[in-house]
Structures
1.
Amino acid sequence: MKGILKLAYKLLVNDKGKFAALLVGITFAVFLMVMMTSMFAGILYRSSSTVINIGAKIWVMDPAVNTVVSSIPMPDYILDAVRSINGVKYAVPLYSGGALVKLRSGVYQSVTVLGLDDTSLFGRPELIEGNIADIYADNAFVVVKDSEFPKLENPKLGAEFEINDHRGVVVGIAKVTTGGLFGIPTLYTTYKRAIQYIPSTRYTISYVLVEPKSADAVQYIKQQVGSLGYVALTADEFKQRISNFYKYQTGVGTNVLLMTIISFIVGLSISGQTFYTFILENLEKFGALKAIGAKGKELVYMILFQATFTALTGYGLGIGLASLLIALAKLRLPSYAAKIAYANLGFAFIMVLIIAGVSSYIGVRKVIKIEPFDIFRG
Amino acid sequence: MASLAMKANELVKWFGEGDAKTHAVREVSFEAYFGEMLYIEGPSGSGKTTLLSMISGILRPNSGTVTVEDKEIWSLTADELAAFRLHTVGFVFQDYHLFPRLTTIENVAIPLILKKLEWNESMNIAMQYLEVVGLKERAHLTPVKLSGGEQQRVAIARAIASRPDILIFDEPTASLDGDTGRRIVDFVKKNILNEKRCILIVTHDSRIFEYADRIMKMEDGKITGVTRGGPNEK
């Protein structure tokens, strides 16, 4: 079998023009599919950045909340009620809101402010400069050094700014697992300072972050929170809810899906057409092989091998090209939200296999039907 | 006395149905022997290519039998027929049907690769057969860089590489000038034909009749006569 496959390989790659056209078709399709799905994955990942960065196991919120930024404030008693549920190890409040800061240069900049529980500072980021205890100092804020950091004019420790007519001082510079989706810088402070500095409604708790005593307690906690008229979601469930919102309620998902389908169709058309032409041009030769003594299944193996080899090579090139472009884009645009996940690669791989399958099916049908007698007849 | 290479008995083949039904071969019977060069001669449409296809296991007859080595080939399965063609029959097609993307040596090695020999071993054997047809130096060129006569010899090398008992040539001189055609057939008679091999040639080129041991004349799907080959024997 090895010899036959080597023969198939040589027949394929020695026809440089056709092979190049096949590779271009599949590479282009994979490139587009990976770019589309990676961009979408990046958007979804970043849309859950606060959930990822804070790291709480359970999030208690209003049932109408779809994304972290669209939090609906809850009354203080919810925190006490949650703390009293059996199976809760501890529960802390989190403030999440937006504000405008006035920088030293006089420029106004939108920011996201996260107010951490004053006692535990649960969900605090990892500091790369400064001391976390300084967050208790007057007007103290910790700035996240991510792709949006320059928008705050690259502040150093001790840098000052104005936030709703209050003085703010940078006491720490932190790093987080992932940056946000909306291109605005993030400030951390204490919960009390957040609700003091930023005007808010009567209720102030955006989320209650819960640490269960054990995994078994999660279900009970969810039930009990539900009976309060609120909802408790595990971090994964919350991320899924955010993803679902962007996928199904914003049009982003539909557009990306459409673009991905178009990429698939373009790739399928180019490679299917080229492979079909390749088979047609070699049809007589396949007939001659049949006349010489090649079995039908051997010809099928040859075609499947050619299609699979082309598909996998195109897949590799497409992935490489997409990775290169994303890396280059991130060099120029640090906030570029594209993320190549295993799911993207798996999806593109399945699509490429379908392209190879359809292309080879057309070829196999032709080759199986060719009669060696036609070769004699000329 | 030469031994029997193959026997065709009452072969019938028609194409189409109803008013469009055309009889290509009508109850043709003949025998071919090892060590002989048997020509099937006749005008276009006389049924000689159809006959050749039926005796080589390519085209199933409507009735009749073809016996090779005591086996009725049309009782074989599709895979067994393919194996029969690979091991017992060698083909030299009218247009050679060489693979333009493969080198000469790779073209010759195709039957050996189909016989599941290792790639390198196939190449070594193919080189031996290229030497037989005098094209060893051209082994690594593609067929498009060879002349018509050289391509014909590559096709012959490919046909004999699997050491078939029966070698079939379809109009071997159709694409060649007279001298080259005669040289090729002369070469085949002197170097390829032997006591363990039978060569069947379909042709209507009278310039090569002198090399035939027997010439079977076909007309309207029937054998209308058998003559001995060579200008003095006609």
2.
Amino acid sequence: MAIVGTSVHRNDAWAKARGAAKFTGDIRLPGMVEVAVVRSPHARARILEIDTSRASQINGVLGVFTARDIPGKNLVPLVFQDMPALAMDEVRYHGEAVALVVGDTREAAWAGARAVDVKYRVMDAILDPIKALDKDADKLHGNDNVFRRWTVKKGNVDKALQNAHLVVKGTYHTPYQEHLYLEPQSMVAWWSDEGYIEVHGSMQCPFYVRDAVAAVLGLDLSSVHVIQATTGGGFGGKEDVPSTIAAHAALASFLTGRPARLVLSRDEDILVTSKRHPAVIEYESGFDEQGRLLGVKARYVMDAGAYATLSPIVLWRGTMHAAGPYRVEHVDIEALAVATNKVPCGAYRGFGEPQIHFAFESQMDIAADKLGIDPIEMRLKNALEPGDTTATGQVLKKDVGLVQALNAVREASSWDSRFETPGRKQGTVRRGLGVSAVYYGVGLGAAGQALDRAGAFVQVMYDGSAVFAVGTVEMGQGMVSQLSQVIAQELGVSIERVRALPPDTNLLPDSGPTVASRTTVMSGNAVLNACARIKQQLLEATAGILNEPVDALTIEPGRVTGKNGAATLDEVLHRCFLERRDLASTGWFKSPETTWDEKKGQGSPYMTFAWAANVVEVEVDTETGVVTPIEIWAAHDVGKAINPAQVRGQIIGGSLQGLGYGLMEEIIHKDGLMQNNRLSQYIVPTIGDAPKINAIIIETGFEHGPYGAKGFGEQPLIGIAPALANAVYNATGKRVKTLPITPERLFAALHDDKTVD
Amino acid sequence: MKITFKLNGRDEEWEVEPGANLLDVLRENGHTEVKRGCDTGDCGACTVLVDGVPRSSCTMMAGQAQGREITTIAGLGDALDPHPLQQAWVEVGAVQCGFCTPGMILSAKALLDEAPMPTEDQIKDALSGNLCRCTGYVKPIEAIKLTATRLNNDKGVTDA
């Protein structure tokens, strides 16, 4: 029986369902102290003086530390080397870390943090990314406030737009989105006088954390031992931010000699951790009379916040996808990540794609409406198919499931019998259907190629159990189960007896970050690579038992079969023991080559793409502007579903995050100060907001994927907001180009024609 | 001050600070199965049952446990004898990151005690205080329905 392709239960589910799983905040070490962080109350200010005398006298406070106490570099290394671990002379956003207070209890640490007197001279803050691009704007970064600029160029877009039958122009605004993983950022660090530090924490990228701790403490990478703890959700929010949290905890431990724990409060977590970038996006899309996409011109401006962090590569991914999953010959995309005095934005599920997909899928819908073409037909006419060339010049292979996905949601939602032309609906409460087509480049791609490798370790014990470890992490997405399935499938061991060890930077090679929906392909292949060597040992031992050649043998669950007989796994393992065979192996995988020519704005940026189509049905109350999502149909080409139940879990969960993005989630600033960093004010979907979500799996088989699988975990979020906006248009005849579609915003659109298309 | 209460079926007598909240006291005493997600009563990760009623332990004073029966997820079932809700949560794939799971299961337990065969609206009502960012809530709802059916079948009540 095949184990890959079946919905086995998660290995970690039992411990989590009993509350037995140990998250970072649950770790308690002898002599452990707590850390609190003094944070800037201003968007931008010069630090004139930090007076720690009052804080130091508080009962239970063991130390107050500032940038001057950092033994190594005051730096959190990422794409650029621009972000300090603790602000030195100037604070650049509301919530930036200024000092650390260590207390013997959380209360003492927090009381100390409140008692640190920082004198600031408030400066004029730059808050609007568009104004930040003005020639005479004050400069936060370089000579133009642009962290990074990327372009995609192909053909002659101006000519194509001139000759087009229809040109659709639109400007779109998208909001911040907060990850709101249920477990706040947390880290425990333990300095040993023997000269090394151990760090346990909630994270997606143990190797980023290692690099950051080594930088601030001035240690060798080998002296920083990072072990990931059970992690309660990430969604990108635990990609780069844990590096800073770990740097703070490590400093506290190093400077006090005690194990130190830093767990952010929820208010603090929302205030200071990265978010999805707000964006302003302008599009011009040209079509012929039949609805064929002729040219796309776009300008994508991201509000990156105070430091570059991951913005250059978030922007790169958005730029690569900005022409949509369509055949188009003439393209001119310009994208900029701009510095402002607000929270540094970074990775969030979709990584620069949800913003532009909202824009171009709205554009497609507007065009379909103007040309009188059914919105799904419109997308099918233009959808990329096997053998097609993308806007960046990448030639697609066989695994392009967009047409299948569109047809699947069309059928499942009974689209053809239920879709009505927009604007014809009557009554106060109206229903509408909307569609979106999206794609997602799997892995880090050409911009991150050097990091796109992964290591694994697998060992089979003589009793038939097995352990493994990889350099990427489980954060809830289901990696451990999928990799256990791979090991059970390859080596015949029982899935219940495969145990995952936590990622450990000293024992595993740098496997890059757990991001970019890369884990199934990268760690899956690394595990396969390790299994191949162990498999060879098992087969050679069996050949001796059955007197058959190795190539006549097949590993099945619990046994190895030949042409004339079979040996149980126990027999084979016993033979391996007697023959002194090595049943432990490392494994390694590096991604297939990808390319990007920055000068030309062309290349083959990704090893492959995942594809998806979504239909959203809504009910709109035209008197109040309230949008109630009724049902979602989401079809995703995942190459091959190693664990279909978990694939559906990703589709459903991601879809609801996408619905939150489209309907309700936003961060509000006033004069550069965040106003709603509380869970009672930053609203995410509850169970009451969750519609029925139908997950549909399409399998096209990726040539380099384990069993044909490709990564897709981010994709479910991306296409929901555009399908939702298109459904609202279908119900009301009003086009909302600013997310989220709150009742206030839709009410304004319904009652003020100036705000609509 | 001293409080006496029942915790997961056992009599306890604890010395607590008068101003301490129940979540802190539980976690300091090793009950880290009760999770801290927000400290403001908004996320539901710290849900415990107080005399069978789900409450956010972060917004309760420890003193309010005096004379009450407190149930955490550890009191519902263990590895050898899991509660049917825990069983269903694992089976249908309602666990992802797992941080909200203990609180959700406890809210579901209180619901099934009140309404053995709940409607979807009753389920949504009962879990409206438990945020989950991973699952989209679809699988937890499925797990509750599955448990209800199983428990009622065990009692000889047929699934309408």
